[in-house]
Amino acid sequence: MSAGPGTAAPPAAPAATSRFRPDVEGLRAVAVGLVLWYHAGLPWLDGGFAGVDVFFVISGFLITGQLVREVERTGRVSLPRFYARRAKRLFPAAATVLLSTCALVLAVFPTTTWKDFGGDIAASAAYLVNWRLAERSVDYLAEDTQQSPVQHFWSLAVEEQYYILWPLLILALAVVVRRTSLPVRPTLAVGLGALIVLPSLAWSVHLTEVEAPRAYFVTTTRLWELGIGALVAIGPHLWVRAPRAAAAALGWAGLATIALGAALQDTTVPWPGSAALVPTLGAAAVLVAGFAAGDAGPLRLLRLRPMTWVGALSYSLYLWHWPLVVAAGQVWPDAAWAPVAAVVVSVVPAWLTYRLVEGPVRHHPLFSVRARPALSLGLALTLVGVLAGFAVSRAAPQAQLADPSSAPGAAALAPDPGRASVSTEPGPMTPDPLEATKDLPSLYAENCQVSVADEGLKTCEFGDPDGDTVVALVGDSKISQWLPAVEEIAKERGYKVVTYVRSACAFSATLNAMEGGAAQRCQEWGTQVIDRLTGDERPDVVLTSSVRSEGVDSAGDRSVEALGEGYATYWERLEDAGVRVGVITDNPAPQEPVYTCVAEHPDDYMTACQVPFALGQGTPALLDGTERVSGVEVIDVLPWVCPADTCWPVIGQVLLYRQGSHLTATYARSLEDVIAPPLERLVEQDEP
């Protein structure tokens, strides 16, 4: 972490002549040790990610202590000096790692990741990457995105944003103190607690309950953790009065709390929320104890030379270990030893950075007297990092592209895909593999697909808004992928298309085989949808599809048949209401992102990037449902995705897959002539 491990003082400094706290340095070692252990994939500390929360408390403690002493000494806060100290201590090492990561990305990672990773690097240099990651964490379409080698910069971004807010708030409170003659520390404690700590904690608990992935990264859910450290820094006049034995017991209890939390908590616990109180209050207890416990407290352990040595390196260790862990996973994806080796190896560049970059820049006379040189250095390093990230994002070579308007796609297989010949020679294609994940159905731009984590349902209209014939698309993202074809058909024939789409939710009366509350939310969504489709919003035709393979029966057992029975329940209700039903089969799932493989194999992608032939994960349950209900039209797309049981990556100059097992909008659109006849048959059927 930045002000946590980043403000390391030389461990040899005597406590009597400086504010250096060896127990704080040792606590840094504990925090970074937890993070490194967790990222190495080692057993027993599945909650090691909480080391970041410990760092947040240390940061709040150290920074607030500096600011409060300045307020007491001068009655104000010098913002230029404050930001200059942060810039010269934190930015040089961070820039060194970011530039090195740029080279690592270009050398090790697939070209399809360069754009995303370059953007992550630029956002990290600007200390905004946590918000970028927050958006990605709740983006259903980002499931193929690899772990970013700079993902760990999210916590540094949180702290840098804290450094902008915190001194301004303390400065405002200092003005209040000056004008009212109120005591400095009590006023700051009440003000920071009321304005930041309590509101942020409440918001953290709430957002973690409703949107945990976003809550993990955003600044607003983390400020209270830094605020805990700040409150400790404000109250040393209280902590020093504690009896030595009581302070020692508190300190050891705090250290034990951190350790037990790391051992007993894991990634199944929604985070941060109230669960983060465990490491934060544990760290606060250790810091409080350090004022009065002396050798009877954790100081006895934390001041040991190995602990202070690691604590001094903690910032560089934190910066370096994660890019190496991710790179090792890319090179040796199945090797359990790879992340462990990466963590061990990271000690070398961390030590070199500490000795050759951190220390020399921090103590250079040029940056010690005036604030402007340090601020200029920080700005320059930020710009260098941002520009380097942009350069990486634009470095990937572009494939030979075909004209989307003339590429036939599935039409090249007509009239019989089983007998059609597919060219295996590499050639131009569309979309560009580097942009395949953006080749989406139009409903995503309209935010018409409800996330699996959200409540309720949402409908959107496409095709002819005045059409008398209404076609409803109902299901998960697998029905969404066919909107481009259905939309074209609808525009040509005057149909109105209405979507009822929820990520990962099959339109089945039985409980989807899913973990946690997602299954219940899917079932509630299905109940709402079937009531609408058989009520005032009754369409003429329902088209459905899904990737889900199993449902849960009344005995709690999972099976294809349970899901199929749930399909049949809803389809019978639709037919009883006069609504015709069509089912579009699922398509096979690749073992790796096809667009990545195609980009990495420009000369032999047709053979190197074939997808294993299969019915498609969701197809068996869909077909089981059709066997239970007569009159359901089955639209079998498998022959057009895998002609002659061969799943090519490119057909008719069109790249098939964009993300996961989803087809590109361009290829889906090219199946218009395949979907149109059965859809017309459904529309033209007389009502029962």
TrEMBL record:
Positions of the UniProt region annotated as Disordered: 406-437
Pfam family, one: SGNH
One GO-annotated biological process of the protein: lipopolysaccharide biosynthetic process
Residue span(s) of domain Acyltransferase: 23-355
Keyword match rRNA-binding: no
Example of a GO cellular component annotation carried by this entry: membrane
Stretches assigned to coiled coil: none
Gene Ontology molecular function terms on file: acyltransferase activity, transferring groups other than amino-acyl groups
InterPro entries, alphabetized: Acyl_transf_3_dom (IPR002656), Acyltransferase_3 (IPR050879), SGNH (IPR043968)
Transmembrane segments: 47-68, 89-109, 161-177, 184-203, 223-240, 247-264, 276-294, 306-323, 335-354, 374-392
Name the record gives this protein: Acyltransferase
Organism, scientific name: Janibacter melonis
